[in-house]
UniProtKB/TrEMBL annotation:
Originating species: Planococcus halotolerans
Name of this chain's protein: DUF3221 domain-containing protein
């Protein structure tokens, strides 16, 4: 019985440590203002992944397109100007959608 309790305690601590890395808080990273150039829909087995491809205003060569996941691509149109606030829950300087959240605002022209 005592070994069981020790095992459960060790397992619980490991879950907390692993969970702490996975569920780190999101912090603001950047804002991108640009135009929706394309709406991509990738069909999966029972669902679809939907993305906006945004070309940044005042862009620098080779760093101008951003692919942003959305839950409802029908709310957007190609050619719309948008502002995207980018949040990340990792310190790594990588474009990793598993560690990012986005707030998208359609801008009036």
């Amino acid at each position: 019985m005592e070994n069981s309790l020790k095992s459960i305690s060790v397992f619980s601590v490991l879950l907390l440590l692993i969970g702490g890395c996975t569920f780190a808080p999101y912090t603001f990273q950047n804002t991108v203002v640009g135009t929706i150039e394309e709406i991509e829909i990738e069909e999966k087995f029972f669902m679809e992944d939907e993305f906006l491809v945004i070309e940044e205003e005042n862009r620098q060569p080779d760093n101008s397109l951003y692919t942003i996941p959305v839950s409802d691509s029908e709310a957007y149109d190609v050619g719309q100007k948008v502002k995207v606030d980018i949040y990340s829950n990792t310190e790594a300087d990588v474009w990793d959608l598993d560690h990012m959240k986005f707030e998208i605002e359609v801008m009036d022209e």
